Protein 1
Amino acid sequence: MTICRRVTVLLSACVLVAVAACADRPVRATPPAGLKPCPAADVPPTTTKHQQATQLNIAARKQAAGHPPEGWCGETAIQEALLHHGAWIPQKQINAAGNPVHPDLYASDVPVALRKLGARIEFWRNAGDLDDYIAWLRGRIDRGIPVLAGVKINPTGHPEWGLDHFVLAAGASADSIIFNTTWGTRISRTNKQLHSRKEKGFAFANGFGSYYGISIPGLVDRENAEPRVRLFATGETDKRLTLVAKCEGLRAGASYRLERTPTHGGRAESVTVFRADGSVQAFHDTIDKSGAAIYRCRLLDSRGAGGGE
């Protein structure tokens, strides 16, 4: 088990970077060859709620092949969160976006990468104790927002560090938090375990009384009323990635264009044009795994033009 080196930092308030919107592009009359609509029965749920528990349907991913010995835990957690918001970014590109001095992203590099990649972020302000932090984290998950969190791994080899590892908090109940580990697995830790500095495994407790959390509610260039796009990986090889692109918040009977760009503000390619038959519609798409693909669902007017900001 590789423990990623980290530093404890107090982060200042987030300064959001405005990203220019894509200009309207000519619309294809028909979907590209090979694009298949996803049957309603196969559309993945975005969130599952049961009694007091909430789980975000964010698949646990592994650190990418070729990662350095230090690991790419922060890169993996960012990749998972951005898939939830409609963007596929290779971990190598995530690492480069943070411009780290070291081979992997440190605590101060993570927000740099997130902003560069167009994510909206909200920091835990270190304004309370561990119970307050866990309550803040649980509240974000209950609202459907994943949180990139720093954890200790007990028994820690580095008590002088504030955290040993980055994870994505993607589920919560009244007495536990569920984490994507960045090793392709998902685990649950009780509040008691998270408070412990002795019990083996993930914990928030450390010797400094400060805690690292960045919630990721979406992308900066999306309007509140704009349909959300969620991505779910359904097939993967060394070179190709098959996704379900799920559009949420549609207006039945309205026409939309599902777009894909390689960067925020880049030239948009029309993936498909469709008339919504309900509030949710999804499509299969297969892309080159080595490149970024950022999806957007735009409402079309009567002329077939998409709205812009």
Note: Residues 130-142 form the longest helix (13 residues).
Protein 2
Amino acid sequence: MFPPVETGLFKLEENKQDYYVTAGRFVSFKRLDLAVDAFTRMPDKKLIVVGDGPEMARLRAKAGPNIEFPGFQPPTVVRKYLAHARAFIFPSEEDFGIVPVEAQACGTPVIAFGSGGALETVIGLDDVGANGYPTGLFFDRQEPESLIEAIRHFENNEHRFIPRAISEHAANFHPERFRGELKWEIEAALSQQNYKLKSRHVEKRSQVVIGATGTEDMETGARVEAMNGCLDNANLQRVISDLCQQDFGLSV
């Protein structure tokens, strides 16, 4: 089950402009230096690096004139950069990675380092999804040469990336789907626990038949009834609502 992403805030844009974009906090593990180094070696291609952080000065110092640093931007501006880009560059390794999903929600392909969460959220050229279209491609080494090769491969196959299909794929990470999956997981867990308690209840009843006092049998039965109460719709909805609000800031 993946974290929810507010994909509904991002509008599909089918008319792309001639630039690439990356975004994030300017810290070392984000590997934005990799994108800067690669595009500095490709002066005919424009890169926009959105964000701010302690690595800003170092990245600016090494960047070529084809790389722009607009600094920290409000969400509305970031969404425009993502929507109009030819592709989003994702050079870091992360457990999930929300921005690549947001870029795809705009219909923008993702060129990502092939490790971590990107392998779960991006459909590569050689692994098309149910709609028959890729949503990005991967490079296998966190080195400028590997990223450069991936960008060239992307441009040679750019006709295969359909913005509407990419956006439809991103909708799989919408909060509504997350709520449905969370509800299913909770129901499955409660049902399994309910089954275990009922099994113990049957075992206790068999002990009563062969001479047990019946005290523990009554206690087990009470626990089963309490667990049955947890499975009604009102209580289940309350549990889901609490989890969504506390852990993900979502209202149900």
Note: The longest strand covers residues 67-71.
